[in-house]
């Protein structure tokens, strides 16, 4: 199973990029962020023609999240992050796809920090952490995947000293991310690339893409039931260089097939050759 996350930075304006990448990469599940489209303007027909069923939570001008499934319709389990009924920002959607519970998220940016936007980010992070704990307690195969707007360590930013006061890198945010992972989640990309500089975002300004002045802010966190199935993970960097590209590149992970009860029974019945 191949799962991916892609902050498209406008699903309609960059639909050609999204469709081109879907055809080339053929992920089984895709989480999209920053749709920048109201609910009735999501390009469901075009995506279905490309072979993907979808659920989405749109919002005019900004935000918006969606989950796509190749050859299937995601089974929606949650619309919006719990913990604040008054929060109207479209930043979280959740669905069951292929035996995996997929939480697609778009963390608030939080800038300028300090300030009201940063305070909202920390509250949102706290709500996510509480919900993540509930998912772990449910003992189900789950992934939290999307644009976290967090660079967890110095390795995840091209020049850490330039970002010390930014809401994506402030100590409070990195501490919150570390606390989330410490619940029992596995940072898939970092698990398989522990010492590498892996970037997922390059700003449009100051020739960031040309200089490879990137950030790693798009993540996939795996529950213990999925961590053992992790086969590979990476970033489709070349997509960032396409015409009309988003400032993010798609991030993907591959999971081995789940071991069935029948598989386990067969293993137990195979002779070991010992007496």
UniProtKB/TrEMBL annotation:
Q: Which UniProt keywords apply?
A: Hydrolase, Magnesium, Metal-binding
Could you tell me the EC number(s) of this protein? 3.1.11.2
Q: What is the enzyme's main class?
A: hydrolase
Identify the Gene3D superfamilies for this entry.
Endonuclease/exonuclease/phosphatase
Instruction: Check the record and name the PROSITE patterns matching this protein.
Output: AP_NUCLEASE_F1_1 (PS00726), AP_NUCLEASE_F1_4 (PS51435)
Q: Which cofactor does it need?
A: Mg(2+)
Name one molecular function that GO assigns to this entry.
double-stranded DNA 3'-5' DNA exonuclease activity
Instruction: Output the Pfam families linked to this UniProt entry.
Output: Exo_endo_phos (PF03372)
> Record's PANTHER family?
EXODEOXYRIBONUCLEASE III
For this chain, the family text in UniProt reads: Belongs to the DNA repair enzymes AP/ExoA family.
Q: What is the name listed in the Swiss-Prot or TrEMBL entry for this protein? A: Exodeoxyribonuclease III
Q: Which organism is it from?
A: Chelatococcus sambhunathii
